[in-house]
Amino acid sequence: MATPVTNEGAAALPPPPKVHRRRFAVFYATLIVLLAAGAATGVHMITRTVVKPKPWSSFVPLTTTPESAVREIAVHVQGVYKDAAGKDYATVRGGPLSVGSDPAVLVKPDAKSTGGYKFFDGASVEYQICANTKAGNCAFTSNKTLTPNMSGAITRRMAYELALTTFHYVPEVQNVAVLLPVVQKGQKARILVLTRAENKDPKSLADGLVPFDPAKPGNLEEATKIAAATDPLIFHYSVTSTSDSPPTPVYLLSPLLIKDTASVAKSAKKP
Predict the structure, then answer these.
(1) How far apart are the C-alpha atoms of 116 and 53, rounded to whole Å?
(2) Burial code of 236-255, b = ≥16 C-beta within 10 A, e = fewer?
(3) How far apart are CA 212 and CA 77, in angstroms?
(4) Would you call 28 helix, strand, or coil by DSSP?
């Protein structure tokens, strides 16, 4: 008789695997910490105060070539200086330093330089400030609402702003010359010249300029400060040319010296 089949003596099944409760508890705790940290970071990013650097100026040229940027600067500065009625005091033109259609150079007397003259190195640009009057001669003398002192403050500050803005936005330019209009009868031609080497590169345009309201130019204190800031940059000038062939047009600068007043006084005494 066959022996009945039974489960006795069969190998016991392995026990079910234990659940690693401790390991999962650590995982969940870590996840909760990470989620909390992420939430805190998100709240900080939303509520934090972002400190943006102060822009150098509210104006930035949109064009990229030096020539177009200079013209854009001229139009912008022209629009900044308006009278109480909202009209531009002047028209400003900008471009390469030239006489007619020929490129020109800036030259000034310098006893230490070869030949007694110093030629300004590097690229130069020229701006011209021309009063918006019916006279058609660029002079501010026909504007009866402005005294020479007022006109001088307006045009000198315009010229200085043109120079500072050009140096900040047009790195190719090394010299800026601004042809200034006559502000009183009998005045000689004047030009404001600033080189990149002489430019103090203010942190912002506002830091480099004397506070001034163009619509109310009668403030004597502001006019005096503008004059003091720009006096070292103002020259008389004449247009001539070099002796080489072909000749190069030259803006010959003539600084006003104390000794020059002696000859003026002597000529004034003549009947």
Answers:
(1) 46
(2) ebeeeeeeeeeebbbbbbee
(3) 14
(4) helix
Give the Cα separation of 234 and 236 in Å (integer): 7
Greater confidence (177 vs 20) lies with 177
Question: Burial level of 61, CB count in 10 A (0-12/13-18/19+)?
Answer: buried
Rounded CA separation 248/30 (Å): 79
Phi-psi region of 48 (alpha: psi -120 to 50; beta: other; left: phi over 0): beta
Please state the separation of Cα 36 from the chain's center in Å.
47
Amino acid identity of residue 256, one-letter, is L
**pLDDT tens digits, 198-224:** 998 899 999 999 999 999 999 999 999
Q: Which two tokens stand for residue 254?
A: 């003539």
Interior/surface letters 189-226, b for 16+ CB within 10 angstroms, e for the rest? ebbbbbbbeebeeeeebeebbbebebeebebeebbebb
User: Which DSSP symbol is given to 132?
Assistant: -
- Whether the link from the prior residue into 16 is cis, omega within 30° of 0, is no
Structure tokens at 257: 């010296």
pTM summary value: 0.78
CB of 158 closer than 8 Å to CB of 90: yes
Q: What angle do CA 241, 111, 106 make, to 5 degrees?
A: 35
Q: How far is CA 122 from CA 77, 104, 176, 190, in A?
A: 24, 12, 11, 22
Cα separations in angstroms, 124 against 8, 95, 155, 195, 236: 110, 9, 20, 9, 18
Tell me if residue 252 falls in helix, strand or coil.
strand
Q: DSSP labels for 200-235? A: ---SSHHHHS----TTSTT-HHHHHHHHHHHGGGEE
Name which residue leads in pLDDT, 53 or 267: 53
